[in-house]
Design brief:
The radius of gyration is 21 Å and the shape is flat. The two termini are 20 Å apart. It has one helix and 16 strands. Helix content is 4%, strand content 64%. It has one helix spanning 2-12, and strands at 21-34, 46-61, 64-79, 86-101, 110-120, 125-130, 136-142, 148-161, 164-177, 191-192, 195-196, 201-218, 221-232, 241-251, 256-267, 271-287. The strands form three sheets. The chain has a twelve-stranded antiparallel barrel with strand order 1-2-3-4-5-8-9-12-13-14-15-16. It has a two-stranded antiparallel sheet with strand order 6-7. By secondary structure, it is mainly β. The longest helix is centred in the N-terminal third of the chain and has 11 residues, at 2-12. It has one domain.
């Protein structure tokens, strides 16, 4: 349903958007570069770039709220002397929440809700190493739609504004899809993103909590936080998966900003350790809300 909604909106949007519809978005290009020549303390020249596109569709009318956020990130890094380009970021995510406010005014901002979430990546991911002769090599470990994760749940939605909301879904179905080429050679006790030998999918039933917060914490300094929690009722419910991202945007002017991103991820179907990612760079901003599609 979300895909149909997005397709219809992209191809039929006119210059006159009804007040109940609001859209906003931002494209950001981050670049990092370092260069060394005859540098006695050592160092490797490198250049990296990341393109981030966030777009929001928000609908509000007669007690109904429909908030959809599309996130896409892709980044590459080239280090002097390395045989391979390496990814620094790769993400496609659609998060959509539909809520209908309770008739009871005492409950205030709470709504019945259903939510949809989809995640995958653009390009192949590799594990880098060396062969028996010491030469660098790489082994493919993921690709587009492998894995792909779909979540669909029902629960309650608390929304103060488009910059502050929480969705709690105690009944959430989660489907993990993978390419069978990654599972056909597994041993019997191995899994690939939770999918067993010879399989291409895994179904989970659990509880999900998602939240979003955005605020200007200092003048020209904005913090954006996204948090996702999930527990699988059917398999080790005490192991809670989480994905927490902090994005600090330090505005220089209308078009240039410095971005600092911290992301913390834990999913024991992937790896039984906390994954940490940090990105710092100078970015070129484009306000997509001023562009009519």
């Amino acid at each position: 349903m979300t895909f149909l909604f997005l397709t219809n909106l992209l191809f039929s949007q006119s210059n006159d958007i009804p007040e109940k519809w609001k859209n906003s978005g931002n494209a950001l290009f981050l670049i990092n570069q370092s260069s060394f020549s005859n540098w006695t303390s050592g160092g490797q020249s490198s250049v990296s770039g990341t393109l981030k596109i966030d777009y929001n569709f928000n609908y509000s009318d007669n007690g109904w709220d429909w908030d959809t956020k599309v996130i896409s990130n892709f980044g590459l890094n080239k280090i002097s002397g390395s045989d391979f380009l390496k990814k620094t970021d790769d993400r496609i995510e659609i998060n959509s929440v539909l809520g209908k406010k309770f008739n009871n005014d005492i409950i205030g901002r709470w709504s019945y809700s259903s939510f949809f979430n989809f995640q995958t990546q653009f390009a192949k991911g590799y594990r880098f190493g060396k062969d028996a002769n010491g030469n660098p090599n790489r082994t493919e470990k993921s690709r587009f739609f492998s894995p792909a994760t779909v979540q669909l749940g029902v629960g309650m939605y608390w929304k103060k504004s488009k910059d502050l909301w929480v969705n709690v879904a105690p009944m959430t179905g989660k489907l993990i899809l993978v390419n069978r080429r990654f599972t056909e050679n597994l041993s019997e006790n191995q899994t690939y993103f939770g999918v067993k030998k010879g399989g291409n999918s895994r179904f989970e039933l659990g509880a999900s909590v998602r939240s979003y917060y955005k605020s200007e914490i200092f003048e020209n300094v904005t913090m954006e936080n996204r948090l996702s929690l999930y527990s699988d009722y059917l398999d080790r419910p005490q192991n809670i998966d989480f994905d927490c991202t902090f994005n600090f945007i330090m505005k220089v002017n209308q078009y240039v900003s410095t971005n600092l991103i911290f992301q913390f991820v834990y999913d024991d179907n992937e790896i039984k350790r906390v994954q940490v990612r940090e990105v710092l760079g100078v970015g070129l901003n484009i306000d997509l809300s001023k562009i009519r599609i």
